[in-house]
Amino acid sequence: MLKAHSRLFEHLTLAMDLVLIGACWLAAYGLRFYVVGPALVTPAVPPLGDYLLQLIPIVVVWGFAFHWFDLYRPRRLGSHLAEWVDVAKASTLGALVLVAIMAFVFKGHEYSRVVILYFWALSIVAVSLWRATFREILRAARRAGHNVRRAVIVGGGSPAAGIVAAVRGRPDTGVRIVGLVGDKSDEGPAMATWLGRFEDLRSVLDRHEIDLIFVALTHAEYGRLAAVLADIGDDPVDIHLVPDVHGLTSLRGGVEEFEGVPLIHLRESPLQGWNLVLKRATDVALGATALLVAAPVILAIALAIRLTSRGPVLLRQERMGLDGRAFTMLKFRTMRTDAETESGPVWTQAGDPRRTALGARLRRFSLDELPQLVNVLRGEMSLVGPRPERPVFVEEFRRKLPGYMLRHKVKAGMTGWAQINGWRGNTSLEKRLEYDLYYIERWSLAFDLKILLQTFWRGFSTNAY
Length: 465
Hints:
This protein has helices spanning about 1-35, 50, 55-70, 80-105, 115-145, 155-170, 190, 200-205, 225-230, 245-250, 275-310, 355-365, 370-380, 390-400, 415-420, 430-440, 445-460, and strands at about 150-155, 175-180, 195, 210-215, 240, 255-260, 260-265, 315-320, 325-330, 380-385, 415. It is of the alpha/beta class and about 475 residues long. It has three domains: about 1-145, no CATH class; about 150-250, Rossmann fold, CATH 3.40.50; about 275-460, no CATH class. The strands form four sheets. The chain has a five-stranded parallel beta sheet. A two-stranded antiparallel ribbon has the order 6-7. The longest helix has about 35 residues, at about 275-310.
């Protein structure tokens, strides 16, 4: 019955699409010659009959184009935006084919390019609006309990939990989850009614009237996929595979399509393309402004260090940055020049006796970090990002913490999400890594600005010693 309803909706949608397309062609003619448009080359308006000749090829071309872009498949789980994009693609293809038909088949007729342009724009807007209206009517009916499809989830873990939450959060899709088939019966009631184990799938499908199956296997269960599909057999049900992206990915995973081939990104930096340009422009603009504003303070600190202790004003220290590449980070020297002669590389402790009197005060308010504005302008660091560590510590940390090197997929920062939340200095490495990866996965320019604002009142003095 539901299949019959789907075919009816498809035929109604096709008929309405084609009626609208024809109306748009006539509306484009009327707009160009009677409402708005550039001055006519000839005083006489082209006869309407010439334009009526195009209605048959237009209906045929747009019908094929809409089918080509799969605009008549069920979009119960889709979005308005995706449909609008497909409508625009189909109308653009149709317009190009129409121009070719006019040039080679209707050589004896002159057609206005403005009419074609108006028609192209009107067809996209009109079809998109009517389809959006139709989808909203269907969604209202589904929320009221009509046009419902019954679904079974096969699998468990986060993929199953994710699809359960998504379906329950969108009652307008009209999908009702009958239950879950999987090995772990203790997880079933928490997500959906447990119907049986994987081996019981065939009997579950025989007992229940099912329209839709979500195969939501965890990465460890992928070996069962062939058996699951074999148990489903040739039942006339729709099958959707829910990939365990979170079980496979380690940093900003995602799914996209390349020339019809689905690609799952297991690991990808958020700072590519325009994001990279935007972040760099922000670093340069704000970094240069901060350096200019802080110049008197920087000069005063440099003079104070020179007058109060022996040794260089600046400490040049190797740190690890973007993609694991080393760079020389600048800081004001806050310790004796022989601070690591006996101990070797070690972290600073609270009340560290190696600090100079002035150095203790500078570190207390993180003023020793101000020279890193030069690193930012050089492009070696960013204003916001995971704090850079010395290579000797990085080698130790990456052995202890799986995934530690992922924090180097973005530039190191003067401040970061971990630091303003108190995870700096001699604190938990696990929590610091957790906060760094959270920042990378959810990066945005707004997030950077939020961290910078919070740094001024919260981050400079937290665990700084």
